[in-house]
Design a protein that fits this description.
CATH superfamily: NADH Oxidase
Helix content: 25-40%
Shape: globular
Strand order of the largest sheet: 1-2-4-3
Number of helices: 8
Amino acid sequence: MSQHPTVKLDFERHTPQEMHDQAEHLFDALRKRRTVRTFSSAPIPMDVVRRAIHTAGQSPSGANKQPWTFALITDPGVKAQIREAAEAEERSFYAGRASQEWLDDLAHLGTDANKPFLTEAPALIVVFAQSRAPDGGKHYYVKESVGIACGVLLAALHMCGLATLTHTPSPMGFLQELLERPDNERAYMIIPVGYPAEGTTVPDIDRKPLEDILVEFAPS
């Protein structure tokens, strides 16, 4: 019996034109994704959010250990507790923990210690990274794996028509305690999810052009 059981790859090969069209569609869709800090209180389809989380759970991970836990919070009381604790950490950050250079780099985004989106958004997803398995087994490339899953989650939610932002108050130990997560888990990111509030605006920023982010090594 094989030590490495396999199944046949389910892979659909597309024509070059189909590939080009899909690449353009994805680029056009995902370039429109923007971080939203003002949310509508309108309810959102939670089955869509759960499917997006399940989609993120299909991400590659070190040794296929899948070292992530997604906590989905819709309880207003729990969201209020998260906001209170997060804003306490943010006040310390803006009042002295952050360097002046860091604050200067954030200035054009208009952020501060107030985080109303943590209670305004209909749902919060807190992503936890598992340092080891629940049974004590080892995990590998945890940060890289969870980072990939978060990227997939953001893309999936956006493609489903939901707005998000990534919030990482530092430190985030209060989330482990507040949500009663085990010792092998550490909070990685908070992702508020919902519809943008009416009249929402976002910072007027640009993305780097392809030539600034791509280095090619092609045959001469």
